[in-house]
Every structure is written in C-alpha cells, then in structure tokens.
From TrEMBL:
Coiled coil: none
Family matches, as CDD domains: LuxR_C_like, REC_NarL-like
Keywords on record: DNA-binding, Phosphoprotein
Gene3D superfamilies per the UniProt record, alphabetical: 3.40.50.2300, Winged helix-like DNA-binding domain superfamily/Winged helix DNA-binding domain (1.10.10.10)
Protein name: Transcriptional regulator
One Pfam assignment: GerE
SUPFAM superfamilies noted in UniProt: C-terminal effector domain of the bipartite response regulators, CheY-like
GO-annotated biological processes: phosphorelay signal transduction system; regulation of DNA-templated transcription
Chain ranges of the Response regulatory domain: 1-104
All copies of domain HTH luxR-type, residue ranges: 129-194
Taxonomic superkingdom: Bacteria
One MF annotation (Gene Ontology) recorded for this entry: DNA binding
Keyword Electron transport in annotation: no
The species this protein was found in: Croceicoccus naphthovorans
Length: 197
C-alpha cells in the first residue's frame, strides 16, 4: 500500500503506524492529514473501535477502512460508523487508486458488491454464527472472549478465578454449541462476525 501511494502521489508524505496508539500519536503531532487508511485488523483495535475513535477525535479527516475481510456486514457497519470508504486489499492497484481519489475528492467509496462477497449464502452463514454465539451463557461468552484474545485455559482460570476443570467444561460447551472441533475453529468463527464480549 505504501509503495502504491508513493508512486502515485509522489508529493505526499506517508506516515505509518504499527499500532492504533502509534497512529493516534502521529495524527496528534501532524499539522494536517488528508486521509487515514485504517486496517480493520490493526493491533489494539477491536473491530470498528479505532474508526469510531478517529471519527470522534479527528472529525474532519476522512478514514478509509482497508481490509482483507470480504464481509458486506463489516462494510455496512463501517459506513454507518462514519468511514469514508471501504477498500478490500484484493482490489487491483488502479482500483485502489481510483477509490482513494474518490475519497480525496469528497465522495464515499464502496467496492461493487460482488467484490466483497455479498452473496446471500455468506450473509446467512454469518447470521447462523451469530445465533450460535447468542446461545452461549454469559460465562461462556466471557470464556470465548478470552479464547479470541489468545489466552490458555490456565490463564483463563486465573483471570476468572475458577478451576481448570470449570474452564475446560466451558470450552467443551462452547465447541459443542458452535459445532466446531477445536479452539482455533471457534476463534475463527468468532472473528468472522466480529465477536466482542
């Protein structure tokens, strides 16, 4: 992305940040920023929390979500939260440039719906995943949140002040309700629909 910007906009200064905190610091110190490209999976950001904070702190700076997730629901939610555009990383170079030019000229950019996998099947699958997650008890949702955060059973037991046996029972129940066979599958499923406990 950086090389595309530097080649196509040779006059522009490109700032990079490895985390959302770094990005906030850079924006606060910068004189004027024309555009922010925010990766939806950036460290220390939960789903669209970074977008919401940028819109609150820098309301006049357009924010374009850049993502490898071809999810029409996330796209819809991002636009509702104030994104000026939604650019899948799978777009060709010229399409990315056209999208950024459109945003810089004051418009909102949306990829065509086919390119973000907006078929009914995908939407129905996501609804089914959400229904399965909704069937979890409050404590199971908390445990799932810890699984998504990458905690081991021992760490979860410590965090919740419960026994390892209790954590294992919760994890087993979560896998059964989500109809998956491993913690990794459960985490992938939760991330797909942007689960945040």
């Amino acid at each position: 992305m950086r090389s595309i910007l530097e080649i196509s906009f040779p006059e522009c200064d490109v700032m990079e940040a490895g985390s959302f905190e770094e990005a906030l610091d850079a924006l606060q110190q910068a004189d004027e920023v024309d555009l922010v490209l925010l990766d939806i999976t950036m460290p220390d950001v939960e789903r669209l929390s970074g977008l919401r904070q940028l819109r609150a702190d820098f309301p006049s700076t357009p924010v374009v979500m850049v993502t490898g997730l071809n999810d029409p629901i996330i796209m819809r939610d991002a636009l509702a939260a104030g994104a000026a555009g939604f650019v899948p990383k799978s777009l060709k170079r010229q399409a990315i440039l056209d999208a950024l030019q459109q945003v810089l000229s004051g418009e909102i950019y949306l990829p065509d719906l086919e390119s973000v996998g907006s078929d009914d099947t995908r939407i129905r699958e996501d609804e089914e995943i959400r229904a399965k997650i909704d069937s979890l008890t409050p404590q199971q949702r908390v445990v799932l949140g810890h699984l998504v955060a990458g905690l081991l059973n021992k760490q979860i037991a410590h965090e919740l002040d419960v026994s390892m046996t209790t954590v294992k029972a919760h994890v087993s129940a979560i896998l059964q309700k989500l109809n998956v066979f491993s913690r990794t599958q459960a985490v992938i499923m939760a991330n797909r629909v942007g689960f945040v406990d």
